[in-house]
Amino acid sequence: MIHLKNIEKVYRTSTIETVALTKVNLHIRAGEFVSIMGPSGCGKSTLLNLMGLLDTPSAGQVEIGGQAVTQYRDKELAQLRNQNIGFIFQSFHLINDLSILDNVEIPLLYRKGDTTGASRRQLAQEALAKVGLSHRTKHFPGQLSGGQKQRVAIARAIVGQPSIILADEPTGNLDSAMGNEIMNILQHLNTEGSTIIMVTHDEAMAKKTHRLVRLFDGAMVGDSVLVMSDK
């Protein structure tokens, strides 16, 4: 599903060179729920961005679904991202001036082949139903709690029915009860077939996934199976 081979990522300015990732080799199989942990600044979000095709490695190769994408042009990367990957962020990234339904619809606006507003609206309504927010479609982000905002963000991530969901600290801004609700939704999406990779600082949340990858100073220092996936 996702294969990273000898990945390195170096950020350079005229005076400073910062190594974010070094010699990372990681294979994530279809249907897995993988958590990534490590101290702040160890490269977790950089790794997630590379898997999400939001950034490119300085060296090494990224494969998505058997396709080597390192040499893809920006337009090709954008199309592959839109068709195959859903993103969930710690800070939600909702547009306050749009209704919940409109927020969820946004990824579909960039899809070729989705010809009617009615079909996009139907898919957005179905995604909101999956996260238990059918009754909030006309509300705006400012009218929701943090947990509800994150559920909207999940609905937006899954509206295009991607095979891969990347979640960067999806419970980081929530209390433990709301965090557990979000994890329950992610676990359910995983049982339905989504491959999920989640960055987290929370050991308890990580233990709810199938596999735990640990990073330190840009290098993988651990990769352990927690629960066997039946995918």
From TrEMBL:
Q: Name one GO molecular function term.
A: ATP hydrolysis activity
CDD domains registered for this protein in UniProt: ABC_MJ0796_LolCDE_FtsE
From the UniProt annotation, give the residues forming the signal peptide: none
Q: Which PROSITE patterns match?
A: ABC_TRANSPORTER_1 (PS00211), ABC_TRANSPORTER_2 (PS50893)
**Which keywords describe this protein according to UniProt?**
ATP-binding, Nucleotide-binding, Translocase, Transport
Q: Which Pfam families would you find in this protein's record? A: ABC_tran
> Does the keyword Repeat feature in the UniProt annotation?
no
Q: Which family is it part of? A: Belongs to the ABC transporter superfamily. Macrolide exporter (TC 3.A.1.122) family.
Please give the PANTHER family that the UniProt record associates with this protein: CELL DIVISION ATP-BINDING PROTEIN FTSE, LIPOPROTEIN-RELEASING SYSTEM ATP-BINDING PROTEIN LOLD
The protein's name in its UniProt record:
Macrolide ABC transporter ATP-binding protein
Please tell me the species this chain comes from.
Answer: Spirosoma montaniterrae
Ranked from the top, the taxonomy reads: Bacteria, Pseudomonadati, Bacteroidota, Cytophagia, Cytophagales
